[in-house]
Amino acid sequence: MSLHHILCVHGIGQHSDTWVTDLDDGEKSFESLLQELWGEYRATSSKGTFAERVKLHPIHYDDEIEKIFGTWKDHADDLKAALKLSPLLLDQVDWFTDAIDKAGAAKADANWGYTHLMDLVLFAGSPTLQDRLVTYTGRQIIELINARKAGDRVSIIAHSMGCAMTHKAIQALYNEGVVTPTGLQTLHCDFKFENVTMVANTSYSLSRDRKSHYAGNVRPSLTAGQGCCYTWINVNHRLDPVGQFQRFDCRSSPHWLDPKIEGRGWHKDITTTRLSSKSIHSINHYFRDPALHIPFFELALDAKFGDTERGRAVDEFIATTPEGKFKGLKAQLELLDVSGKQSFKDFVVALKAFREAIRLF
Prior knowledge:
By secondary structure, the chain is of the alpha/beta class. Helices cover 47% and strands 14% of the residues. Strand 6 (178-180) and strand 7 form a beta hairpin. The N and C termini lie far apart (46 Å).
């Protein structure tokens, strides 16, 4: 039986190299949540057990960020110099220079809450550090692809900052290549991921060249030599500022979406709205909602859901997510809407407020 390999790229914050099996929102690991959901539906369980059909592979770069923070003073000086050249941060150099200095103090005090947000500044502010992280991520991706057996398929789930990391890594792998211990490696044009799922997608907001962001191979396509995958899911929660800011919008480019993909319903742009916990940005919170996990099972893993099973899943989820429970939190988070903001400073400030509101709820 062939296996479907799902490469999982984490977002901001601390993650281990086995993060898909670490406890997350709901006191479950991401892997356990998907296994449980798989077993709930006839559309999926009839295809065999989750372990028989699917293998999750954690892609991690947090350890590389920790190495950067390990020599923070040297990197901080380089990063502050790079701010003057960053198209994303140029207008707020003084504010971000101060933020970088505070990040060093936060690390010294073992206060990683602030430095988690600095992950975004690291990625957006310095081409050198960005290239280092993209190479580190791309190397893991190409090694796992090369290790698959004949007949096995490969998909990617990226979350939060991991979406920007994934976008840049895939683009590099299809073009200039990524340096690995065995030399420069690229993806051949005849390879395509089965599915790419971007959760709280930051790929556009963290792009250093937004004018050409929708060009290149990082898109679904059935045309030979074009695209990186067959199916695509982009999802953001209405109250999650991470995907709101400078939102990924493929329809702003008339050439991004292959008409053959659109006609087959193989591209989904999903906005979720319900709250199943206060950890709105958690990958578990996203996938717990049938508005995401059913399309994912269908597009990535060929599950066939009927209207009855789909409707029952939605009804049961609504029954377990009463609107009144999080009414106060929703009111606070609605005030943090960054969908119309242009300033990266406003985005980082909103993220800090978002994190604090959730912590205090």
